[in-house]
Amino acid sequence: MVLLPSDRLDSLFSPRCVWVNGPIIIGAGPSGLAVGASLREQGVPYIILEREDCIASLWQKRTYDRLKLHLPKQFCQLPRMPFPADYPEYPTRRQFIDYLENYAATFDVKPEFGSTVQSARYDETSGLWRVHSSSAASGEMEYIGRWLVVATGENAENVVPDIPGLDGFAGEVAHVSEYKSGEKYKGKRVLVVGCGNSGMEVSLDLCDHGALPSMVVRDAVHVLPREVMGKSTFELATLLMAWLPLWFVDKVMVFLSWLILGNLAGFGIRRPAIGPLTLKNKYGKTPVLDTGALAKIRSGDITVVPGVSRFTKSRAELTDGTALDLDAVVMATGYRSNVPQWLQGTDFFGKDGYPTTAFPNGWKGQSGLYSVGFTRRGLSGASADAVRIAKDLGQVWREETKPTTKRAAGACHRRCISVIF
């Protein structure tokens, strides 16, 4: 890192700034927690900035009650801490939140809550990252440090498609992030827009609570059984990929799906031409793991419909020319990364908010920039990247910072509110 003259330091550090003697981590979801815990074991100081008032806000505030982990717990644990032995194979939403809170306490991870990052930019002259944030408690702040870890993840912002007439629909419209339970929809005609894992499970939950759901299946989608002969489909695929080429494992997965679930085309669910694992690896499109929705589709309790062309005050007009009378709409249309909104001056992330370098090499950029939670491989991918980042940062931090930290931090202490060690 460049040693700066005192006049340059005076202009660099504003009266309301914080010098961070270590990485600045943006986001306190599972990815940010995993990096923080891994850095703690390396003896590297850090700060985590989190816009919400809790860790894992997606899980705590924007998930439905019946949600469980879609993969067995051994594929979802964070570094250095397995799930409790008494947890079921597929932990519930509440169990996963408890696990994350215990994880944060065990590794003494204490984020700065209520800190919304407005911008982050690398200062070429000083060789430092400058992160501007705002909070109700402390107002505008600037955090300055040698390294930046982007851990805001793939699900930072809701995605709501612009469907003509939706604003004029008189019934309730909610994104799946606002949906908790089908209890309040009992007896109501509900259109679920989206047929991913969330769309399928919300449709099933509505059914279980006595609602009358219809589910939009606009595009082709892979639906796989969650288990095959008592073994997780994901675990089986992982084992096969250790010995067989991806294209062959895809064929095995499709055959097993047809064998167990049957041909779904007659119910309005078309299978993509590209195999499920290839589709996931190349385009990040996750196959649906069936947890009971298909049985309700077969029985007619969940109606599959094509795309929506427009909404009226009380109806949805579909692309096949038919229309549905509705009381409510749930938009199970997913989430997206928000990194392009605040990270400036780097092409490491593309316009879609994902690293432009493909997995497994998308965890490290230039100038001390790192990313975690963007592998399109869920919690296991985030955990693997967190370990890589901590190991790399631990080595770099010990080599680069100790000789220069005292001088920079001393100047900063005269000008800044605090110094993070």
Automatic annotation (TrEMBL):
Pfam families, per the entry: FMO-like (PF00743)
Classification of source organism: Eukaryota, Viridiplantae, Streptophyta, Embryophyta, Tracheophyta
GO terms classed as biological process: auxin biosynthetic process
Keywords on record: FAD, Flavoprotein, Monooxygenase, NADP, Oxidoreductase
Xref: PANTHER family: FLAVIN-BINDING MONOOXYGENASE-LIKE PROTEIN (AFU_ORTHOLOGUE AFUA_4G09220), INDOLE-3-PYRUVATE MONOOXYGENASE YUCCA8-RELATED
Cofactor(s) in the UniProt record: FAD
Annotated family: Belongs to the FMO family.
NADP found in the keyword field: yes
InterPro entries: Auxin_biosynth/cation_transpt, FAD/NAD-bd_sf, Flavin_mOase-like
EC number from the UniProt entry: 1.-.-.-
Top-rank taxon, per record: Eukaryota
Molecular function terms from GO: flavin adenine dinucleotide binding; indole-3-pyruvate monooxygenase activity; monooxygenase activity; N,N-dimethylaniline monooxygenase activity; NADP binding
Organism: Triticum aestivum
Name of the protein this chain belongs to: Flavin-containing monooxygenase
Catalytic activity: indole-3-pyruvate + NADPH + O2 + H(+) = (indol-3-yl)acetate + CO2 + NADP(+) + H2O
Gene, per the UniProt record: LOC123050980
Leader peptide range in chain numbering: none
